[in-house]
Design a protein that fits this description.
The complex is a heterodimer of chains A (about 280) and B (about 290). Chain A has about 280 residues and is α/β, with parallel strands linked by helices. Chain A is built from eleven helices and ten strands. Chain B has one domain: MetI-like fold.
Chain lengths: ~280, ~290
Amino acid sequence: MTVELLIEKLKPENEKRVEPASQGEPMGPFKIRAEKLNAWFGQNHVLKDISIGFGENEVTAIIGPSGCGKSTLIRCLNRMHELVPGARTSGSVFLDGAEIYSKHVDAVQVRRTVGMVFQKPNPFPTMSVYDNVAAGLKLNGMRNQRKLDEAVLNSLKKAALWDEVKDDLDKSGVSLSGGQQQRLCIARALAVEPKVILMDEPCSALDPIATAKIEELIASLKEQYTVVIVTHNMQQAARVSDRTAFLYLGQVIEYGETTHLFENPAQELTERYVTGKFG
Amino acid sequence: MFGLCVACVALAVVPLASILVEVVLNGAPALSPEFLTSGPGVIGEAGGGIGNAIQGTLILMGLSSLIGIPTGVMAGIYLAEFGDVVFVGHSFLTHVNSFLSSSLRFLNNVLTQFPSIVVGILAYTTIVVALGSFSTIAGAIALSIIMLPIVTRTAEESIKLVPGSIRDAAAALGIRKWRATLSVVLSTSRSGVVTGVLLAMARITGETAPLILTVLGSSVFFQCDSLSSCTYSLGHPVDALPLRIWRLALLPYDYARQQGWGAALVLIIIVLTLNITVRLATRGKFGMMRSRT
């Protein structure tokens, strides 16, 4: 059963009214939305009653000091959090109105719809550039070579990597430079046709030029996807995102339009953080 | 310090090299097409060969690998990937699982140190006694028991070396755990797993003690031209190179000693060929490349 079908099936009983998470102008319907989300690592309560929504075709940045739960929050959005031994969650996450934590929903299917890119580029070391991009489709049973070729081509183009690797598709994925590897990982995530893309500090291991390329890419991705990016770098959040959420100690302190949040923060804590007085 | 290291290397290499030289010098003259293809001749008369022993060794290696490698690799996967799994909300299952994996690890370590003759006795008292005859299959099972801990241990260790980020990447693509384990994790740890398999195969190729108690040795070839003759042969004694070397070395004739050296050389060549072939066959497209970042 595909996610779409599941989502259709689950819609009536789970559809709830859409409400803005906190202050800020009214936002369009949220593509993915957390409600009263709590997350734990063992006894450690890292996310506390988080309610936040992410708009379609927007880039939302999540900022905050280390350990505030940024990564955990996005890992809850594609049910990766529960893969950590001893980790658990409570509350709900709605994707297109359907609860992804419902027991009828398969976490593996959720992850195909909500893709993820990690902090450190992590291409599969034994696979070629081509196989890396095709991995998600191939290992989920796709055998049609023509469709695979098409998906690889499209994904590499969308990830702005095609021109650099079109002659090296058989080379090892890890033989590329760091920035290319990260774009390869983005292409790999795009190949399974997700609707939402989560990025966990995607540029923190890259040099400024590679970072600029990824940021450019993020801007183009929002035309088709909902992008949520965790970042330590406030300039980056200001450059790439439409909305920004400031997280502190597992709670959303402030959420709103990026320009608004950086230039005219409503909370003193936010102001102190964005001006670099702490964090 | 450097000098000391070089001296130690020399110290380690001298016995190995001298054995190798000795075996080649003494064994090479014995090699001839007849020696490699015919069965043993009449005791006390020059002639005859080790063809049936070579055949028996290859059959035993094949059969025990067939049993030992899949079992060992799967056990290694279990220990590395599932041994420490926490079943949220099922503390009983979690305890059973952690008990199972820790006892498997412990027993595995014990088994690694086991004298191989004890494994032979185990196979003797169970299989040989039950079947009423020394048999190929008893030998294969004994040898696979010797392989098991080596394969399991190296598989577990090399699978554990695969960075968690690779597993995360696979999970984030919506790849099922079993599929990711087989196609991504195992493939990433391939060279380590293969090393373990080769070590285990090399180890059993030279085992003699358990074979005395299981396959016994034979002077005829393993017959396998129909299903019934195959099953018949599996239930009966077979020859193996280490056994043949041992028997030849006990004989008080010059020709037998010569043949013994020849058989030892053949054994070494088999292990060497196996190593090289398996390495080449499982090298993969990109060998040992590591991520640059």
